[in-house]
Amino acid sequence: MQSRDLVIAGGISLIGGALAFVGVFSYLAAKFSYPKILDGAAEEVLPRLRGGGAPMRAIWAIYSLLPLLLVVGAVGVAAALPNASAAMMLAVAFAAIGSLAMCLGLMRWPSIHWELARAYETAGAESRHSISATFAGLNVYLGNYIGEFLGELCIGAFFLVVGLAMYCNAGFPGWLGICGAAFALLFVVGAFRNVTARVQWIADINNYLLPIWMIVLGGAIIWYPGIA
C-alpha cells in the first residue's frame, strides 16, 4: 500500500471512528444513562444491562472495538509525517497501547458484566453480595485503571506527540499542531479524574472534544496531500 493510501485510510478511520463514537455514546446515554451509570452499584446497573437485551449487548460489543480505529488512524498520521519517523514510531506505540487498554476496559460490559447480570437475576442474597463485589472490583481494575487511566494517558500522549510533530512540520499550519498539543494536555489531565474529582469537568468536556479533534485530525491529513 502506498503512503498516500495509508494516509487516506487513517483519515477515514479517524473520522469514521469519531462519528461511530458519537452514535454509540448517544445511544448509551439515552438507553443506559451513560456515563453517569458507571458510578452505580450492581443492584442498579446489572438489571438495566440485562434488561437492554441483545441490542444493548451488541452496542457494548461495538463500542469496545471502536478504539481499534485509532490504531489505523495513527498509522495514517505516521504516513503523513515521514520526516518525523522516530516520533511517529512512538506515537503509534502509544496509540496501540492506549487502544488495547480501552478495548479491555469496555469489553467487560458485553462479556463478564453480561454474565454477572445473567447470574444476578436468579441469585440469592449471599450470591448477590459476591456478584456485587466482583462487579465493583472489575469496574475499578478494568474500567478505571486499565480502560480510563492507562488508556487515556496513552491516547493523550499520542495526540501530544502528533501535535508537536505537526507544529514542527511546514506541511501543516501551525495552529493545527498547537490545538493538537493543547487538546492532548486536556485529555491527559482528564485521565486523572479517578485520582481527584476536581478534574471531572475536564473529562466531561473531553467527551465532546475527542470526536471533534479526531475529525479535524483525520480531515487534516487527507487535506494536505503534499506531505505524504
Describe this structure in words.
With 228 residues, this protein is mainly alpha-helical. The protein has one domain (3-227). The chain is 82% helix and 0% strand. It has 9 helices and no strands. The protein has helices at residues 3-32, 42-51, 53-65, 68-80, 85-106, 109-122, 125-167, 174-190, 200-223. Helix 7 (125-167) runs antiparallel to helix 8. The longest helix is centred in the middle third of the chain and has 43 residues, at 125-167. It is elongated, with a radius of gyration of 19 Å. It starts with a helix and ends in a 5-residue tail after the last helix. The model has no long low-confidence stretch (mean pLDDT 93).
Taken from the alpha-carbon principal axes, the silhouette is elongated
Reading the helices and strands in chain order gives HHHHHHHHH
Backbone structural class: mainly alpha
Q: Describe the biggest sheet?
A: none
Helix content: over 70%
Number of strands: 0
Distance between the termini: 13 Å
Rg over alpha carbons: 19 Å
Task: Determine the number of helices (DSSP H or I, runs of at least 4 residues).
Answer: 9
Q: Give the domain tally.
A: 1
Low-confidence region ranges: none
Mean pLDDT: 93
Quaternary structure = single chain
Percent strand equals: under 5%
